[in-house]
Amino acid sequence: MALLPDIDNSGTGRSILGFGANDRPNVVGNPTLANRSPERWFNTGAFAFAPPGSFGNAGRNILDGPGYQNVNVSLLKNTPLREDINLQLRAEFFNLFNHPKLQPAGQFPGSPTFGRITSARDPRHVQFGVKLLF
C-alpha cells in the first residue's frame, strides 16, 4: 500500500525513487469487507492521505489479494508403431476447472482503480499434440 509515485506527501523527495519507497496513506478504519466483489475488494474508506510532512502509517502487505487455484492435467498415450518407433498422443489442460485468476486490486489512493480488481490472468488453455519418438 503506497501513494502514487508522483505524490510526495512527506516532502522528502523519496517519491521519485519508486520501488516501494513512496509515501503511504494513514489507516483510519478496518479495510476488511465481509462481502468482497471485484468492484470493491476492500474498504477504501479505511485509508486517508496523511497530513503533509508525514509518511503515513499503512504498512506493507496489509491487504489480502484474491486466492489462486490452478489444476493442470496431461493425458498421454504411447502407441508402438515398430520396435524402435512410438507415436505419442497428448492432451494437456492448463487451469482445468477454469477458476478465475484475478489480479490484485488497485492499491493507490487517489487512483480510479483504488480497491477495484480490473483484470484477470489467462483462462483455461487446452492443447493437443502428436509426437513421434524414435
Mean pLDDT: 88
Biggest beta sheet summary: 3 strands, antiparallel
User: Termini, distance in Å?
Assistant: 55 Å
Helix fraction by DSSP (H/I, runs of at least 4): under 10%
- Gyration radius (Cα, Å) is 24 Å
Order of helices and strands: EEEEE
Q: Structural class, from helix and strand content?
A: mainly beta
Which percent band covers the strand fraction? 15-25%
Shape: elongated
Could you tell me the number of beta strands? Answer: 5
**Strand order, sheet with most strands:** 3-4-5
What is the tally of helical segments?
A: 0
Poorly predicted parts? none
Task: Provide structural commentary.
The termini are far apart. Helices cover 0% and strands 25% of the residues. The chain has strands at residues 26-27, 47-48, 73-82, 85-94, 125-133. The protein contains no helices and five strands. The chain is mostly beta strands and 134 residues long.
